[in-house]
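Troubleshooting entry. The earlier prediction with adenosine monophosphate gave an output that would not parse, so I re-checked the input for stray whitespace and re-submitted. Clean input:
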Amino acid sequence: MIIQKPKGTYDLFGDEGKKVLYLEDLLKALMQKYNYEYIKTPLFEVSELFHRGVGETSDIVSKETYDFVDRGERKMTLRPEGTAGVVRSFIENKMYGRASQPTKLWYFGPMYRYERPQSGRYREFYQFGVEAFGSSDPLLDAEVISIPVNFFKLLGLRGVRVNINTLGDIESRQNYRKALINYFKPHIDCLCCDCKNRLENNPLRILDCKVDHDLDIMKNAPKIYDYLNESSKKHYEEVKNYLSSLDIEYIENPNIVRGLDYYTHTVFEVEANVEGFGAQNVLCGGGRYNSLVEAVDGPSTPGVGFALGLERVLTALEFEKKELPIEDKLDVYVIPVTEKEKEYSISLVNTLRMSGFSVDMDYMSRNVKGNFKQADRLCAKVVIIVGEDEINQGYLSIKNNINNTEDKIDNDYIINYLDEVIEEVE
Ligand code: AMP
């Protein structure tokens, strides 16, 4: 039996591969405009980092990590998300000591979670994310929320909806936590198995439970807004004001709590509001985590960030029938008429590639007719034919597919010629 890919993974190639590269380029350019710095951290880290940086009670750490013991008997984990590694790096590389703050970082790469594979959920998936450290200004919360919003705008996605909520500062959050425990305790028998455990460990998570969310007791549960102290209220109001200044429409949704213990103040999710998209319609999620750096033994430093799932963005594009401009035509296809012209041709191909053109040639010993067919398959803008006469007399025969002409061009002028005709199209 042939070996197959592991469950919950996929191979990326062809048009899908081109789309991912296109999205990566777009994100890279966007991050440059926002003045964020690229960071890459290892795909695996010591397991303890995720226990502390994501939280023991989160679903991710309690049920979904890929753990292994390495040959040096160290407990390691394939990263299930990007924030913990970036926080570790921020501390280890003393980025908090830089004169220029805040420290604004972005990353892109694969994440690993042992989840039940289903549509929109993979065991290896790609996340783009940002983490901004060192400022507790609500202005930064608004900037971070504006990143996915602008990215989706650039892609032309229309059915996206921004949901925001606040969890308040640590004091407000703790008071709210107590109120939730008191409220749900008498109803514990109605709750699902997971929520029974959440009641003591992570009661906020009961609010976003997919199983229990239709229960009547959910509707009357205490609301965070009644437990916010003045400074938490002020932070939240300011975030909303800045979002309005940015013309970002949002919906306040008190059930957005996010899975992690360290979120404070703003939490948000962006969902695809497209009919038929299915349950996995959350494209991105994030928030402020003012106590996370300290939890990983760094100096108390505020932070705010988000992560976006690339596969879900691709699905959203499909649902909205948005095509990405990924159709890449080849600039030049070179045809050696016989074996004898191969040597000359490969050197020409190399020169043209180094001059900035995308160039390919025949490697299948096709005849000239077969090669013209291949040039068509590759959508070559210009075909260069190299025969004995051409080499002896120092010129190249050209079939220009842009304006359907045939030309003879002196060897020395070929780059000028290509510059002119190809630039015309671009
Ligand atoms: P999270 O880190 O769980 O907040 O997820 C952030 C984003 O990553 C989600 O909104 C999804 O778009 C994406 N995501 C999370 N888990 C998966 C998964 N198993 N497969 C594909 N995308 C995922």
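This one parsed fine. Residues 156 and 174 are 41 Å apart (CA to CA).
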